[in-house]
Amino acid sequence: MASLGSSRISGRSSVVEFPRIRRSSFIKSSRIGFRVFASEAQQEPDLSITVNGLHMPNPFVIGSGPPGTNYTVMKRAFDEGWGAVIAKTVSLDAAKVVNVTPRYARLRAGANGSAKGQIIGWENIELISDRPLETMLKEFKQLKEEYPDRILIASIMEEYDKAAWEELIERVEETGVDAFEINFSCPHGMPERKMGAAVGQDCVLLEEVCGWINAKATIPVWAKMTPNITDISEPARVALTSGCEGIAAINTIMSVMGINLETLRPEPCVEGYSTPGGYSSKAVHPIALGKVMRIAQMMKSEFGDKDYSLSGIGGVESGGDAAEFILLGANTVQGPWVWLKGRRTGLHWCDDARVGVVKKTLRRDEGFHEKHNFSSLKISEGLALPYFTTHTDFGTEAARRDSTKKSDKQGCKSDKDWTEMLCKRDREHGVLTEIFHCIFGS
Ligand SMILES: Cc1cc2nc3c(=O)[nH]c(=O)nc-3n(C[C@H](O)[C@H](O)[C@H](O)COP(=O)(O)O)c2cc1C
């Protein structure tokens, strides 16, 4: 592996030089979603994390898509305090990428898709970046020069061609980006060229391409997985055994947004025709949680003691949504939704002001740290994970476990009693939800 340059972590008054992370020198201990520490000297929560040796001020990451299109939007994300930014996917030859208009369609909650209903689903047939690679590389370099302490991740994709992958990796690494996310998951357009989901859905192909990538890359590599497959843990396993340091999931779900009942044509309609696209936003959140849960279970059971990372993506619209991914075992959470919602919603839950509010909240509540053992509180990922079982187990294992709480059950004459009893037990088990709500205010 080639040796790497240096990356800096700067505070207001000081700048500390850190060696840039070599793939072989990851910090083993930190597969932690995020940590909240408060000592007597330092009463403020520290949301910073280190994953695969990448230090981030918080685990909230701009996912690949429109908010990573160019220098201006990525710079804004850094200025707003996002933990890391993943740029829009690039490939060697942008001239092959032809983006059409319209390329988005929305699903609204409300009667007959009423124009007034809340947008809950979003379909896009947008391809990867159509900007010249040279332009994107120049902007990556500029961002790294201006924000040396912030994590910039390049999302890349290429055709089934070893030399092309190697060239792309080399040219992108030269800009100083901190890691790669490999787009094995775009469901539209690119699979026709044996790219994106075409690779992520074929474990044999995936293993070979991951082998090329990991032999060449000298910075951490995350594999971004497609949900458009029966068992997402299978390609995730292949990516990890083939040398990737992390998994990101999910990309969009193959969808047809609808048929226009006036024109009888499918939407979004480009000169009378459409093509299935990728579904995202709020409506996919439960599906994304399900996929991430499967990957997290597999990672825990098969790669448990190693420093692999997991990035949760899909329908994150609040801190609570993000916390759910972390509770399932994700270390970071991605949210391209910010582009869709913009500043209007005030959902900038990780900008300085928001973090400031969090810190104030914690400071104001004098008993809070003690009550929640904040003096050395470490909220680790995956705390909800052990609470998944099989349906069959509800009647056996789970029932046996529950029988130890027989006293609780007495008096449970209805579903309502049972729910209340479970809620009570949840409260006894921990204050986790409360902590998350306090931190994220959601
Ligand atoms: C308009 C649009 C463009 C996207 N472009 C990319 C892309 O270039 N590369 C990529 O890996 N994912 C891309 N995605 C997928 C997102 O990064 C994300 O995986 C997906 O939208 C699910 O997350 P969400 O529900 O929070 O939007 C795109 C999503 C949208 C909506």
Automatic annotation (TrEMBL):
Keyword terms, alphabetized: Oxidoreductase
Pathway assigned to this chain's UniProt record: Amino-acid biosynthesis; beta-alanine biosynthesis
GO molecular function, one term: NADP binding
Enzyme class per UniProt: oxidoreductase
GO terms for cellular component: cytoplasm
InterPro entries, sorted: Aldolase_TIM (IPR013785), Dihydroorotate_DH_cat (IPR005720)
GO biological process: beta-alanine biosynthetic process; thymine catabolic process; uracil catabolic process
Record-listed E.C. numbers: 1.3.1.2
Annotated Dihydroorotate dehydrogenase catalytic domain residues: 47-335
Signal peptide (UniProt feature, chain positions): none
Gene3D superfamilies, alphabetized: Aldolase class I
Protein name per UniProt: dihydropyrimidine dehydrogenase (NADP(+))
Annotated source species: Tetracentron sinense
